[in-house]
Write the structure tokens for this entry.
Amino acid sequence: MLVFLKLGGSLITDKDKPFTPRPRILTDLAEQIESACRDNPGLRIVLGHGSGSFGHQAAGPYGTRQGVSGPQAWRGFAEVWYQAAALNRLVVEALRAAGLAAVALAPVAAVTARGGRVGAWNLTPLRAALANGLLPVIYGDVAFDLRRGGTILSTEDLFAYLAPRLRPQRILLAGREAGVWADYPARTRLLAEITPQTFAAHSASLQGAAGADVTGGMDSKVRQMMALIRRLPGLEVLIFSGEGGQNVRQALNGETPGTRLHR
């Protein structure tokens, strides 16, 4: 069984404090992933993570997501790359300490964007990692863009390209929110599920995530995932909290915490 799992930037960093990881959370999440892999020997995971207070803080002043042109903007591009890679190193260190054979595959080195979306991606290394029992780790990163010069691709952007090609059974998006709220920011009514038929009724209530986020908030996340669900029959997406408890392990074991998106 192939599963895509994202550890959100708001979960693994403090998005209100620039360049601030949450090491205890990283350790706990890594241990949950390792436990799920022991529970399910046939489980294969493509792990992605956001850039949180690392990449988003660096990107904001330069508008890197919208395009890159000129010396200052390219210096900003390099700074975003550096900060995203710095956080990725912390994530991989936590996974390694938990006993997982994680291999980071930096998108900037393999992905070419076109107009802010993945245009081409050499998937040979990622496929080889999965075939040999490794845990490939991708993340929100800068990319050279044939139209914009440069851009930033979120983990959801990367998953959207990978899903039709690798065909995961589930996509698990772990953040700080318990799921998709019908009344954000009041947070009194959590949606148990969203389908293509009910999406329009809920779309007006979807709001951007709190904190700096240059790649879109909850609205963008849900829209991207619903588009995939329409394209890929049988795909299930979960949006849930990875904070506290054992939600990540449980989701990897087939349970459905948070909000379930499906056809």
The longest strand covers residues 2-7. Residues 208-212 have pLDDT under 50 and may be disordered. The chain has one domain: 2-261.
